[in-house]
């Protein structure tokens, strides 16, 4: 695998073609992409946005990532970083388009794959001592949908959770209805939020051999209930964080027991949280808010009470960019944003 990727990088290394024109104004911080047609050149447009509430910028846009943006030919719903091997996986939707694209962290397109992927919603890379794998939540309604699937880095199907093509019931743990997102921790334990508008509104924890450890959540706005649990992540202190999208809050649970630990409501009056991921040092939580085209960066509490939410910084993206899900390179700290409106993934790098 490593030899294949090195060979691909060597072949691509001499090319710096960026497929399109770049228009940039001083101080540009928001970015949007426009395309004249499938496979055509990308035309990028930069916009200026003042820092929110006057705070110092924490990230800057990497305008050279990716090298060839014309490989984005569908709606880019999700992105996952393999920090160990320097790879970035992008899930996109559309007719007759590759559903999974693979780039290097430098932005070179490597390869794509498509088999048994219908409508990717969430994506996650899990690294072990013996290799890596890619988990995808599939919300399609055809013969591959309503499943959580594990693939090799080259796209070989390794594991299927759920019954392909059949929407499930909340009464059966491994029967999904539009599963939205997945997080796998270093022990191999799996966290799934299910679903993205289906009959289920729940958070499920599975063992490394796919047995239910605990399950929580029903449809509603009470403590521990959800209205479209859309993204899930785990911090370094044993807490599970869920973007409870339509309730406009983040809920937090104990990793071991599933006990409810608290919620953050006050930061999301304008728009609910769509994605939750921690920075590499676990000091901040990065939240995508799709309808207001914003990334909110919140202070992450240490061990103990989660307290009240506090936005310390935000990145205002261009209109109609629509950031959906994000991921963080836990080695470099770079933030990748999948934008379904702009049909692209953007990379932001930390300034310090």
Question: Mind explaining what this structure looks like?
Answer:
There is one protein chain. The chain has 352 residues and is mostly beta strands. The chain contains one helix and 27 strands. It has one helix spanning 2-12, and strands spanning 20-23, 30-35, 42-47, 59-61, 75-82, 87-93, 100-104, 109-113, 120-127, 132-138, 147-151, 157-161, 179-184, 190-194, 202-206, 212-216, 229-234, 239-244, 249-254, 260-264, 275-278, 284-289, 294-299, 311-316, 323-328, 335-339, 344-350. Strands 4-27-26-25 form a four-stranded antiparallel sheet, with no helix packed on it. It is globular and about 45 Å long. It starts with a helix and ends with a strand.
Summarize the structure.
The protein has one helix at 2-12; strands at residues 20-23, 30-35, 42-47, 59-61, 75-82, 87-93, 100-104, 109-113, 120-127, 132-138, 147-151, 157-161, 179-184, 190-194, 202-206, 212-216, 229-234, 239-244, 249-254, 260-264, 275-278, 284-289, 294-299, 311-316, 323-328, 335-339, 344-350. The chain is mainly beta and 352 residues long.
């Amino acid at each position: 695998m490593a030899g294949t990727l090195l060979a691909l990088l060597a072949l691509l290394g001499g090319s710096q073609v960026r497929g399109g024109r770049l228009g940039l104004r001083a101080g540009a911080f928001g970015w949007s992409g426009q395309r004249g047609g499938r496979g055509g050149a990308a035309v990028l447009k930069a916009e200026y946005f003042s820092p929110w509430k006057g705070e110092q910028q924490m990230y800057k846009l990497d305008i050279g990532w990716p090298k060839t943006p014309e490989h984005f030919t569908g709606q880019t719903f999700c992105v996952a970083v393999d920090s160990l091997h320097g790879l970035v996986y992008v899930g996109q939707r559309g007719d007759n388009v590759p559903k999974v694209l693979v780039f290097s962290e430098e932005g070179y397109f490597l390869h794509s794959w498509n088999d048994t992927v219908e409508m990717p919603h969430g994506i996650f890379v899990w690294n072990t001592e013996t290799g890596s794998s890619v988990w995808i939540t599939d919300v399609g309604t055809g013969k591959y949908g309503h499943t959580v699937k594990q693939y090799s880095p080259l796209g070989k199907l390794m594991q299927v959770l759920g019954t392909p093509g059949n929407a499930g019931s909340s009464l059966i743990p491994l029967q999904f209805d539009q599963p939205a997102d997945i997080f796998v921790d270093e022990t191999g334990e799996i966290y799934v939020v299910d679903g993205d508008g289906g009959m289920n509104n729940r958070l499920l924890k599975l063992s490394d051999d796919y047995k239910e450890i605990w399950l929580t959540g029903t449809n509603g706005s009470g403590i521990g209930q959800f209205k479209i649990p859309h993204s899930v992540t785990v911090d370094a202190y044993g807490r599970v964080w869920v973007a409870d999208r339509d309730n406009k809050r983040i809920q937090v649970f104990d990793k071991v027991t599933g006990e409810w630990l608290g919620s953050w409501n006050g930061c999301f009056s304008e728009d609910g949280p769509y994605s939750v991921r921690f920075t590499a040092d676990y000091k901040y939580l990065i939240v995508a808010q799709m309808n207001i085209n914003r990334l909110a960066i919140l202070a992450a509490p240490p061990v103990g009470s989660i307290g009240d939410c506090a936005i310390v910084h935000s990145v205002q993206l261009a209109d109609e960019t629509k950031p959906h899900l994000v991921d963080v390179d836990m080695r470099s700290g770079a933030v990748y944003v999948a934008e379904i409106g702009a049909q692209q993934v953007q990379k932001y790098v930390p300034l310090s």
